[in-house]
Amino acid sequence: MAFKIKFSKKVQDGKKLSLPLLALESTIIAQGMPYPKNMEFAKEAESICDDLGVVPATIAILDGEVCVGLETHELERISTSKQVKKVSIRELGLATSLGWDGATTVSSTMHIAKNNNIDVFSTGGIGGVHQQGEQSFDISQDLLSLSRIPMIVVSAGAKSVLDLPKTLELLETLAVSVVGYKTNEFPSFYSRSSGLDKIQKIDSPKEAVGLFMNNQLLGMPCSTLVANPVPIKDEIQLEKMKSIIKVALNKLNENQVKGKDVTPFLLDAILKETNGKSLKANISLALNNVRLGAEIAKELSAKKGPSSLDSQWSLQKP
Question: In whole numbers, what is the pLDDT of the chain averaged over residues?
């Protein structure tokens, strides 16, 4: 028996009408923000899409069922349940076989979205090479997915707790097209700057779509990563963040946190060190990425014209 896949009513209607769709991850809801802020964020993200005529497709696993788009009660479940596991691309088979409730990461969201003909995805910040990654080999699966799955991904750069120079270098090695939206500097999540100022600047959704489509025509297997800086009013200056992250990393080492727990631990430690300012910045940058992603999805839909939006995956069969 094949795994189950379910589309929300909005996604079903959007597919019938050939409307633009935007993929959204669920890890940011389940593990990235506390309740009720996470639920408020999820509703606002969907509202931004609705206002722009784009269908929001928040992706998650519920009772082992792949969900492309979530109803309000399902968003509430993801926001409040303590049983929701963090599911990356390597756990998709486990989650669907063992009936998990799972929040999808960047890598698993990309995989599910692409297999359901959704070509644009907005997230907060991608994962990458962790501090001292050359010793621990702690490198996010996000980077490999970005090199293998051709779609447009909008993020506020990479999470600032990472080794950003190594992350950007590995993106280059993996042939991922990285561009900055109205900037030539790779943003560092909470901060607009990183000191890494050698990426190509683009100035419009049209340019992002043009790059993506040309990559497709050239047979490039990689994603187009659009780095979109946090809005100025909500950013935390880079120098201030460096000292805060240093404290958080010391706490991480003291508590000997490893694996998937590293990023949630660091984000929580940063939240406490910034007296909540990091959460405000996180919400602001993520919504900013949703808005840009929706605009890009509209532009891409207009360029491609009406096409079949049927899933490449089969539904449950007897």
Answer: 93
One fold for 1-118 and 136-305: yes
Considering the domain 1-118 in this protein, what is its CATH number?
A: 3.40.1790.10
Q: What angle do CA 113, 118, 220 make, to 5 degrees?
A: 90
Q: What is the pLDDT of residues 241-278, one digit of tens each?
A: 999 999 998 998 899 888 778 878 888 899 999 999 99
Q: Enumerate the domain spans of the chain.
A: 1-118, 136-305
Residue 265 dihedral angles phi and psi, to the nearest 5°: -65, -45
Backbone angles phi, psi at 130, to 5 degrees: -75, 160
Q: Could you give the CA distance from residue 278 to residue 252 in angstroms, rounded to a whole number?
A: 18
Q: Which residues contact 82 (CB under 8 A, 6 or more apart)?
A: none
60's enclosing H/E stretch is strand 55-62
> What secondary structure letter does DSSP report for 2?
P
CB 103 within 8 A of CB 29: yes
Residues with catalytic annotation?
25, 159
Q: Per-residue pLDDT tens for 208-236?
A: 999 999 999 999 999 999 999 999 999 99
Q: What's this model's pTM, rounded to 2 decimal places?
A: 0.93
Superfamily grouping for domain 136-305:
Indigoidine synthase domain (3.40.1790.10)
| E strand or H helix at 264 | helix 262-273
